Amino acid sequence: MTVPGRRSSTFIRLLRSGFTDPTAASRLLDADALAAVRADPVLLDALGATADPDLALLGLVRLAEAQTPEDLPLLLDTLVAAKPLRDRLLGVLGASEALADHLARHPRDWQALVTYEAADLHPGLPEFEAGLADAHDPVALRVAYRRCLLSIAARDVCATIDVAQTAAELADLATATLRAALRIASAAAPQDAAACRLAVIAMGKCGGNELNYVSDVDVIFVGEAAPGTDEGKGIQAATRLASHLMRICSETTVEGSIWPVDANLRPEGRNGPLVRTLASHMAYYQRWAKTWEFQALLKARAVAGDPELGAQYIEAITPLVWQAAERENFVADVQKMRRRVVDNIPASQIDRELKLGPGGLRDVEFAVQLLQLVHGRTDTSLRSGTTLDALHALAAGGYVGRADAAQLHDAYRFLRAMEHRIQLYRLRRTHLVPEDEADLRRLGRSMGLRTEPVAGLNKAWRRHASVVRRLHEKLFYRPLLDAVAQLAPGETRLSPAAAGQRLEALGYADPASALRHLEALASGVSRKAAIQRTLLPVLLGWFADSADPDAGLLNFRKVSDALGKTPWYLRLLRDEGAAAENLARVLSAGRLAPDLLMRAPEAVALLGDPEGLQPRTAEALEQEVLAAVGRAESGEAAVAAARGVRRRELFRTAAADIIASYGTEDSPAEKDCGALVDRVGDAVSELTAATVAGALRAAVRDHWGETLPTRFAVIGVGRFGGHELGYGSDADVLFVHDPREGVDEQEAAKAAQTVIAEMRRLLQLPTADPPLLIDADLRPEGRSGPLVRTLASYAAYYRRWSLTWESQALLRAEPVAGDADLGRTFIDLIDPLRYPAEGLGEDAVREIRRLKARMEAERLPRGADPTLHTKLGRGGLSDVEWTVQLLQMRHAWAEPGLRTTRTRQALAAAHAAGLIPAEEAQILDEAWVLATRVRNAVMLVRGRAGDTFPTDARELAAVGRYLGYPEGRIGEMLDDYRRTTRRARAVVDDLFYGA
Question: What is the value of pTM for the model shown?
Fold first, then answer.
């Protein structure tokens, strides 16, 4: 019976020892099996030193109760008297519920933790093979495997071995297990064993001697027929042996399973034969293998079966592995695979993913492997399958900065140790950090964090993951700068050849020029060079993520040369986190935005201002332009100022469009492509209207002062009136005037003509700013008609002579500059023409259809692919716009929502009015938005307008990146465009042509 007060004292002592449930622990200590040791203070202290004292005590009671009466005293005596064994046994019981279960089923296996020789402290492959030698069936193999695993875990949790040694021993144990499984399979089918030679090649972490506690063991099987055996029959025999080996390791028995053996890294994966001859392997690798397969082969190691055949396989594939970096799109392929891995992680798990998430183990492994493949071609010291050994070799050779390598080394070891402890608990394959408080507490204590294990664990984990994220890309680029900079004594630099190799592998087409740019930017001891050395590793990574890294770096050098002496420039890039990334995206996305920026580099300040990329209102733009015109002393100076505003605002619009389309590290790409198109269309159209208004004010002021002899208005038509201008669009307009009272009509007409000529001249003067072309060809009678008419002349013409196409052109007419009252009067005049009462007659509908069919037949440029022409091609802009405009002319008289100059608004109104089903409206809208984005992309990339996809591979890739297609997916982009426009054309045939 417990003496009053003693329980409370025991209770407090248990709490102080780290038990979370002292009541349950007290009951367990009272178990009969522990009667001989329960009062020993050493036991309680030892339990308190484990990762989970409650779990350790429960496991100890279960183990003691499973002993025979003869064996129990030996366990308890050894437990009290032998500190090394006590620490190992209780350490395992406090860290692994699964190994505690094993000891309860096999109560004598605790004796495997008793060490007598130095070899027991650091067993290798021979010791593990000896430990599995007596296993002649799958069940016995599992028991022997767990017994060996027990010794590794004990030395791991007691810190007798570190995380790298633990991983190496686990790989040795896996090797011994594969050999034992092959021995069992061969004994079960001696005829098959005699008919073939079979080699087992370890891949992945097993091949790299860095295995986890629970992981798929990746293998490749190589087979040959035995002498005198038909090759087909020999390979069939080898396949049966390999299949049996996999089942022996993978299948669940009364003793559970060992681990899955995964052969999916073989040629053709699951679709390929399980066993191939060496010649068949080589034929595949030389002809069909993808980049990721060579990356996987970097860790290949012959571990079981015929040693000669295994050695021949490794010898044969080694040259292919180290030539992989010379393959086209090598780095893009590797990075694409990494992105695919991250994309496949469920969103709910990404923050807990220790292996695959951002800042996880895979980031380190991918980075190290990529550098190995790039530089291992010429430096054999880098050819290690073990991540930490390879990282050390990269640092020693100057391929990675020593400080960066040291930080990454520490982070990787910490993350691997976390992974080991998580898996050890239940011996389950997982890479997720637990969410349960008790699991986190045990995990933290197992990592040596005793004071505040949960908070300490989370803090350390986040810190190390942050280091990995920060250094992941920097690893590639920092040594490139060291190659062109002065280094401290004792530091090793990349040779120019190695730096060139790395730049080429990262996608730079002209490594020599890139190195010259780096030298110009980062060499020297000035503060400017020091800041550039800080910025460039990150910027180079962003440039490499674009379709044209060379252009990005060259443009950055140009901007830096122009602004390098400006105090705010480098400070902006260094201190404003978004500014540097935004600049990198803009400079490497094509020609237009960098060209605009080079004409006034100070506009780079917009990229660091959170509001800097927001479009300005039409009122603010017109006010700024007119104020600038008012301050100028001549028409030329006035319009130069207006065009300068236009250039800056075009850059603002293009930069915002690029950044929203590409996305940044902190914000994903804009998903609503229609919103992107509308923002560009509105911004460019309003900017063009402000520029035209400024040119009009300048032309009037230079010749007539403040008042023109005639009221004058500019009417935007086409894309201008529809707020749908792109970067390279002309301004389609109509000019209308109305003589002032008392002014002769001929004098008024001459004044109007003079104003138009002067506006056009000023807007097209050769300057550093892009010209703005005024196109009045949609006026009555086209090019044959007068350039400007009076309001009365327009009324007379439309009353007597107007053609159907002219009424259609007026659907997108909207005043943009000049006399506002005259503009509104003009709109009142044309509304009955564009929205005819009772709609269009059948003759007019047939005429529109005939015109459209003739345009399709005659206007498509010779040689153009009709499936890829954005304006006149199948399902392109013209198809959608004519279909919408026909609906407007037929129904806008009765449906006010259709009375808009904007295509997308009219389409939405047609659907709302029940004139077009939702699915067909969506198909047309999607095609119109996509075609518009392609046109915008072509202008951004090439710096000049175009209606078709570029033929140059880099330009086409840049268009793809703007549209959201990663490198290597150009074919998919063109297929998607054709599919989208093909569906749109089917709707057009139905709605427009009445097919």
Answer: 0.71
